[in-house]
What does this fold into?
Amino acid sequence: MHVDPESPACREEAQLLPDDWSKAKIVAANGNLSPGVYYPTVTSKRSRSHRHGVTRRTRRRAILKNGDCNILKSKISQRRLRFLQDMFTTLVDAQWRWTLLVFTLSFILSWLGFALIWWLIAFTHGDLEENHLPPMQDSSGWNPCVLNIHDFTSCFLFSIETQHTIGYGARTTTEECPEAIFIMCLQSIVGVMIQAFMVGIVFAKMTRPKHRTQTLLFSKYAVVCQRDSELCLMFRVGDLRKSHIIGACVRAQLIRSRTTKEGELLSHYQTELQLNADGCDSNLFFIWPITMVHRINAESPFYGISAADVLQERFEIVVVLEGTIESTGQTTQARSSYTNSEIMWGHRFVPLVTYNRERQGYEVDYSKFEETTQVDTPLCSAKELDEFYGTNPDHRSIGYMAIGSQIGSQIGSSAPDEDVMFRNLSSPAATDSVPVSPLIRLSDRLVADAIRRASLTHRPSIVKYPSGFFNTHEEPSSSSSEDEKQKKKSKRNSKKFDS
It folds into this structure.
């Protein structure tokens, strides 16, 4: 089917592909290079400032690159009531301006509220009458509830002194009013509770483990290349601080749509990806940047996805780093994500840990944290790669050496034995008669056909050599000289008999 290169679909696909992919040349099947493998024309290192796939479309994502969840919640019944019931967590999660506003209002409103109560106590007792004011109390012999109360301003100042136990000594309560003694005790208790509540909120906001995640790094891109003859999806994690994360654990989940056997569409189906690092599981000894590896095997959801499918599929890989902060003992969690436009097929991360002899320690060069190099990587899926090489991973490197070493010993036998060997190979029970390792069936057929042709070739019992084949400069042997003498004697005898 002919496709117009100027069509909108083709132009969109051309924009999705990077420039190096369009420079790949088709290699003949009989060449030194394998077909279906991406061989870049220019081998260059990718710097951190290089933006891979700048022309690609921005994909929707659930987790942003800084770790924030891109989730908008709406139509929640009794939302305000639910959040007010957990006021402490609400204020801790709120922004600093709202926390400081609540902090200030809580003190001011409490001062004003108790100032009003003190003014009512003084007013009902008659302390605010003109003859009962502090200048006239000595002459009239009036005993007030609180000394030196003139008006509401005096009550407000006394409220502040009582709540924070300032104790200037100018205004004090007396034994005249029991209600004044009760309000003084109540305000002291409320003041301590408000202060403890607000100090706890401010301390929790300042020491939140979320701030520790600012020094935990994830690579901007994930790469796909071969490692130990298997396609692997890899990304890098690092820690900038000297205090380590204790019990660090990295998890990855794939979010994409899935259709069940009953036809139900699961738009955001999450699949756990198996991760390991340097032959260990996802639990890390996190002392330097580590490359996390997901092997694309039969158990991986990427088993049937090729390099071309990555450009068309819509998915998101969410990675989560969890651990305990060594300095505070709190648990922290750092998050990031990778969409299909942030996966670089045929790249490998550059090593960044070296030993510095001058400083006598391992040095980590974080300028190479995002740097990658291009490597030769098959563009097909891992499933197609396994079908091509077979289930045995050794076939990817040694080819047919195993079968050659086992059958070569049998080829050196006699012709009847070769016939038996061929019949055993061509029979259904070939694996029982000939101990051949489980290789590709196509290679077995080729070997069997070669043995058939060798066994059916006509081989004469007496070999005739051309004349003069043995005429060499070597001295004749004793057996050949005796044969010649006998021939001469027989000729002489025949001549005598004729005569």
Summary: Residues 223 and 344 are 5 Å apart (CA to CA). The longest strand covers residues 245-259.
